[in-house]
Write a structure and sequence with these properties.
Helices cover 66% and strands 6% of the residues. The strands form 3 sheets. It has a 4-stranded antiparallel sheet. A two-stranded antiparallel sheet has the order 5-6. Strands 7-8 form a two-stranded antiparallel sheet. By secondary structure, it is mainly alpha-helical. The protein has helices at residues 3-16, 45-50, 72-83, 106-124, 127-139, 143-162, 166-181, 183-194, 199-207, 230-251, 254-317, 323-334, 339-343, 345-360, 365-379, 384-394, 396-417, 443-469, 473-479, and strands at 23-28, 32-37, 56-59, 63-66, 218-219, 222-223, 423-424, 438-439.
Length: 489
């Protein structure tokens, strides 16, 4: 749906739910706009359902308007923009202006940051980016299990290196590896669920990939191996199963649907997985692993510089979601993803930048208070409060924070090029929270030293770049201004 169409739909919905004053919260899932309303009696449900773009409404803990996966993100972003109070400089390049004689406050920055975020959501509601978001939504529910199994694997490795409790180490092997051995099934289940198929059929077709008996099957002149193709194959197999299910259901009489549709879906989907998808996906997965290994071994400095420096802009463009299947493939193949520690350096650059902003804006108590409250989360890898509350609305500091991320990424990249590659056994955590999940060729302590060195480099580079280049003289004067009546900011 085009941006103009999204805006028109949002403008049509707003008065029918009681106007802006009646809306307490706005969110969305894959198909539904979810509104927290002050008074539901103000909603004109019949008029809402009469809108051509509205597929239905659901009353639950939130009032839900079904718009479908192609429209919901764009309409939600447009509705948020409509709910934004107009500022004196709305749409300008910088944050909203503060009252005359006073410095811009944290509230001004936060408002400007939210406008930037809403505009980014509208720009990101393209078919390609929405497809990437849907793929990300397949893997996000798996992150808790990846984290738990990754930490158990790290504990098992530490106990084995210390030669402690060998019986416990033996038991921890299945605990940490059982999920990864069946991850294709979970990916298949979530894929079918996400794309509108029957989840268990997606899982059933994907389970063919990890079944031990595939070793007896020959495809393209080679015997298959259990797990060949990994999550890439599971994703493809489940997507095929969804289309097979829809195609069969359209052709089969309703009386036979319960028997024929599952049978055709599993039969054709399973055979396609065996005699095509497993081999092709296996080649793709192997290429991903080789590419990541080669990249660090031969171009670690440049790879770290580029990945660490551009990760936050990728996040704003919505393109970072394409990396989630790559991370998962590397974890399944090699036991860890060497890309995540490099990308985590973007958060280190933000932290260093925020400290410099804090010291440079020494007379702006409001912004300094925001930084103090957001820094602990930033240290643990949660960067949104600093990005949208401080660095991005200020402009230049966002760029200098990316410089810090590039420096930290280059540090880890050089270490990988020298043979000290550091990886993460799970995705999701970042910052200091990533330490328990680190893995490398020389053990946890060596990996922690490399990763810690990258964090310190990112902190320092982000700080120095922001201190010297983050503000013009005029900007410093504006944000450090003191109100005429003796108050600050």
């Amino acid at each position: 749906m085009s941006d103009e169409k999204n805006r028109a739909v949002a403008e049509a919905i707003l008065p029918l739910v009681g106007g802006a004053a009646n809306i307490r919260s706005v969110a969305h899932c894959m198909t539904r706009l979810r509104l927290g309303l002050a008074d539901r009696s103000l909603v004109d449900t019949e008029a809402l359902r009469a809108l051509p773009e509205v597929l239905g409404t659901v009353e639950d803990d939130t009032y839900q308007i079904v718009l479908g996966p192609a429209a919901v993100a764009g309409v939600t972003a447009r509705l948020r923009l409509l709910l934004e109070p107009p500022g004196p400089r709305d749409g300008a390049a910088g944050p909203a202006a503060a009252p005359t004689g006073a410095a811009p406050t944290a509230e001004d920055l936060a408002g400007h940051g939210e406008r930037i975020r809403a505009q980014a959501r509208v720009r990101n509601a393209t078919p390609v980016k929405l497809a990437l978001r849907r793929i990300a939504d397949i893997f996000v529910p798996l992150i808790p299990a990846l984290i738990g199994c990754g930490i158990v694997a790290g504990l098992s490795g530490a106990l084995a290196n210390l030669d402690w409790a060998p019986a416990l180490v033996t038991a921890l092997g299945p605990v940490s590896s059982g999920f990864m051995s069946l991850i294709a099934v979970f990916v298949g289940y979530n894929t079918a669920k996400e794309f509108g198929g029957t989840p268990v059929l997606g899982g059933a077709v994907a389970s063919v990939i990890v079944y031990a008996g595939v070793a007896k099957v020959e495809a393209f002149g080679h015997h298959l191996t259990p797990g060949q193709g990994g999550v890439v194959g599971a994703l493809g197999a489940a997507l095929l199963a969804v289309h097979l299910e829809r195609w069969t259901r359209r052709l089969v009489p309703a009386a036979l649907d319960v028997l024929v549709t599952p049978t055709v879906t599993v039969l054709l989907g399973g055979l396609a997985a065996l005699f095509g998808l497993m081999y092709v996906a296996g080649e793709v997965s192997t290429a991903i692993g080789h590419a990541a290994t080669w990249l660090l071994a031969h171009g670690g400095l440049l790879a770290g510089l580029v990945l660490g420096g551009l990760f936050l802009p990728l996040v704003m463009l919505g393109l970072h979601q394409a990396l989630i299947p790559i991370h998962t493939t590397l974890i399944q193949q090699q036991g860890s993803t060497v890309l995540l520690p490099i990308l985590a350096m973007a958060g280190a650059g933000q932290v260093g930048c925020a400290v410099a902003v804090y010291l440079r804006l020494r007379h702006n108590a409001s912004i300094r208070a925001t930084i103090r409250s957001a820094l602990p989360a930033g240290l643990l890898g949660v960067g949104e409060p600093l990005v949208y509350g401080v660095t991005l609305p200020l402009g230049r500091p966002f760029v200098t924070a990316c410089v810090g991320g590039a420096a930290g990424g280059a540090f880890i990249g050089v270490a990988g090029q020298l043979g000290d590659a550091v990886g993460s056994t799970a995705i999701g955590p970042s910052g200091w929270a990533l330490f328990p999940l680190l893995a490398g060729p020389h053990g946890l302590l060596a990996s922690a030293a490399v990763y810690g060195g990258g964090l310190l480099t990112g902190y320092l580079a982000g700080f120095l770049a922001t201190w010297f280049f983050g503000f013009t003289r005029e900007t410093l004067a504006e944000y450090n201004a003191v109100a005429p009546e003796g108050g600050s900011e």
